[in-house]
Write a structure and sequence with these properties.
TrpB-like_PALP (chains A, B); aromatic amino acid biosynthesis (chains A, B); homodimer; alpha/beta; 7-stranded mixed β-sheet; tryptophan synthase activity (chains A, B); 15 strands; EC 4.2.1.20 (chains A, B); Rossmann fold; 4-stranded parallel β-sheet; globular; tryptophan biosynthesis (chains A, B)
Chain lengths: 457, 457
């Protein structure tokens, strides 16, 4: 088996349950606060946005949560996804390390986002939701939810950050081909959008603003429209754990166990998806795998942000949560070409990072694209710029192993392909992409921009 | 197993040999003629374009030709490709037919073209070729050869039909990311290109013209550059038979055998790739599978063209071969959005069609895009417009089975994804795509545009 490079699982190996890190995490979850009252939210507060079955999942403490058969049937269109050994990359690096990657880009929508889009659409459908709303930045989440809503015959409105909407016409076309309606945010369809346009007529938009618009439409729909979020929340991270559960079986097929598991982080869903099942093995079965989250130097919420209570969106309509944050009004440098532009980080992941159970690092975009091109030219697959953050760090770990001679086993999540990101590659290859730096002043100013919260005793 | 929808094979099931239809075809191959002398070509005539190991493969008569280990190692990056049962499409159609598809879009370059690009680059590399040249229309072949040349560390020049070059910037970017150089054809780098530009300064280009340019560069390189063709020739069809060989094993896993095998045709390579192994079973083992080639109504070489000797390219530099042709100077209607624009058809496939061993049909583009959108919305995968010709016909076969109540087993080749074709989808969805009709006068005028050939006795 030593020359094997693909480790495949059959339909029958598709996980039957998601893994809930809340059952094993030693970190007590911080309360989630209503943005208006700053008091802990009630399920009723959340019910304007989400159906009750998803709210229940959000606060569940069971270790395993069964994947509904209707969801598994759709997962089978692309899952289990392949685990690959990057032998050609290893050879190019001259490293003794073994590099494995889990390839989520085989999903029809092109990324791991389908793993949560399908169950979210399913739970909404059975709860009686008639239409969904969402935001999308780089476009992966909007595409995934468009496919999922089509499968469950629900309408979908996608609010896409305007600058992405204009830069990525193919993403927009694909979302429309799946049957959803898509709008460049800020729009004049919401009071939040109209206010933003009144302030800045050619407003390029932001993820926080698009979230506010999608949430407003759902909240004011009289209950028949609900909102779907593609990252950050517990139930989203939960759905993504199919990645790590499969990877555990596949590493077993390969006869190895990873020393380090790597994933890029924006809100945290793809990293958590691959890492949490390995974290369970650390916490419960004595494994000692390093779990390494990679963020862009342009949006370094974990490595340079503040662990504090902050709003989930720029309009201060989303709940206040305790997380690593750059401030809810943070806008990443416009020279940053990839996604991963969210100002905060999943609260659950933030707690684990604060407790020292996972690690984080930040990488700069020219280094990321250099790694992306090396990966494309050795392994053939063009990665999404987001996923290339994980590749950069995997290569760095492999080069370190080359120096020390360590036969390290590296596993990273290749969360999506870059077929809709080729203009960024073109900019990089023609030398037009700049490195993304974040002034220190932006960091030091974070605390004063956070909401004042007095916690209940 | 009745609810299984993916039929996967492991590395160990990857075919060890290509299947050569020439060993079993009852059709004697017609001579290939030198375009200048109109005498049968000699290996030396071809040697300015191809290395000798590929020329030998072109005329081989062995039934099986071993796949070199170096090629198999690269095939393993994406092969064996999945065979899928389109249960969601079946349900949407309400048909008793079982619809299977072989999905070649999982190749890193996005289509079946990699199956021939990798061995062509390999054989060139071991023959001492230092650089390759090629043309590309829709971009699938150029992308595949760019990846393959990068893997074998050879330079590549791609001549891309100008109208596609302008319409598909992402294809161009991807080819550059793989490390190749790409030019909008006609260029001023060749005498053929300069002549074309002198006649029509804003010449949109054609596949025939791009072939002429790529071939000229190789022919005048003094032997260190060779030319690679992505379809039509015997060795290209041979390389594609891995598709059908895998599909035979996978249909066996599914416990069924196809009544009809369907593929789209431009030059004929993806159809031949899936069909020839099933044709072998027809010819040698008494199976009676219908083999159905689908062409666009805009370039109906088999269904409305002439079976005659014609040039392979518009500049009359490529060999004269006997094939179904619309005339070497044929230019498809510009409203036609897909690829499959070649004026002729693989000679070997033409002979089999003329002998009644395969069938052909032509479909119109609005019907093709309707099928493509239905497939996207049921199965999730966005097909290449070329591949969607096969989907259209598979759906038509399934609807026919619904009328008759026949439990037909349909297998089609989904030769690639449509991630770089979204502007065509956008045109279709906004009602801007027209149906592509070909005036009868274009057909009746074909014979007078063919070269005069007097065959040796």
């Amino acid at each position: 088996m030593s020359d094997q490079i693909r480790f495949l699982l059959n339909d029958t190996d598709l996980p039957r349950a998601w893994y809930n890190i809340n059952a094993d995490s030693p970190v007590a979850p911080a309360p989630v606060l209503n943005p208006a009252t700053k008091e802990p939210v009630t399920p009723d507060d959340l019910a304007v946005l989400f159906p009750m079955n998803i709210i229940e999942q959000e606060v569940a403490t069971d270790r395993y949560i069964d994947i509904p058969e209707e969801v598994r049937e759709i997962y089978k269109l692309w899952r289990p996804t392949p685990l690959m050994r990057a032998r050609r990359l290893e050879k190019a690096l001259g490293t003794p390390a073994h590099i494995y990657y889990k390839y989520e880009g085989v999903s029809p929508s092109g990324s791991h986002k389908s793993n949560s889009a399908v169950p979210q659409a399913y739970y909404n459908k059975i709860a009686g939701t008639r239409a969904m709303t969402t935001e999308t930045g780089a476009g992966q989440w909007g595409t995934a939810l468009a496919m999922a809503c089509q499968f469950f015959e629900m309408d979908l409105e996608v609010y896409m950050v305007r600058v992405s909407y204009n830069q990525k016409p193919y993403r927009r076309n694909l979302i429309e081909t799946y049957g959803a309606r898509i709008f460049a945010s800020p729009t004049n369809r919401t009071s939040v959008g109209r206010a933003a346009l009144a302030q800045v007529p050619d407003n390029p938009g932001s993820l926080g603003l698009a979230i506010s618009e999608a949430a407003e439409v759902a909240a004011l729909s009289g209950g028949h429209k609900k909102y779907g979020l593609g990252s950050v929340l517990n139930h989203v991270l939960l759905h993504q754990t199919v990645i790590g559960e499969e990877a555990l079986k596949q590493m077993d097929l390969a006869g190895e166990y990873p020393d380090v598991v790597i994933g890029c982080v924006g809100g945290g869903s793809n990293f958590s998806g691959i890492a949490f099942p390995f974290l369970r093995e650390n916490l419960r079965n004595g494994q000692r795998t390093r779990l390494l989250a990679v963020e862009p130097a342009a949006t370094p919420s974990m490595t340079r942000g503040v662990y504090a209570f902050d709003y989930g969106d720029s309009a201060q309509m989303a709940p206040i949560v305790k997380m690593y944050t750059l401030g809810h009004d943070f806008i990443p440098p416009s020279i940053h070409a990839g996604g991963l532009r969210y100002h905060g980080m999943s609260p659950i992941l933030s707690g684990l990072y604060n407790a020292g159970l996972i690690e984080a690092t930040a990488v700069r975009q020219l280094d990321v694209f250099e790694a992306a091109v090396q990966f494309t030219r050795t392994e053939g697959i063009l990665p999404a710029p987001e996923s290339a953050h994980a590749i950069r760090t995997a290569i760095d770990e492999a080069l370190q192993a080359k120096e020390t001679g360590e036969k390290k086993v590296i596993l990273f999540n290749l969360s999506g392909h870059g077929h809709f990101d080729l203009s960024a590659y073109s900019s990089y290859l023609s030398g037009q992409l700049e490195d993304d730096a974040l002034p220190e002043a932006e960091i030091t100013a974070i605390p004063e921009r956070l909401p004042q919260v007095s916690l209940p005793a």
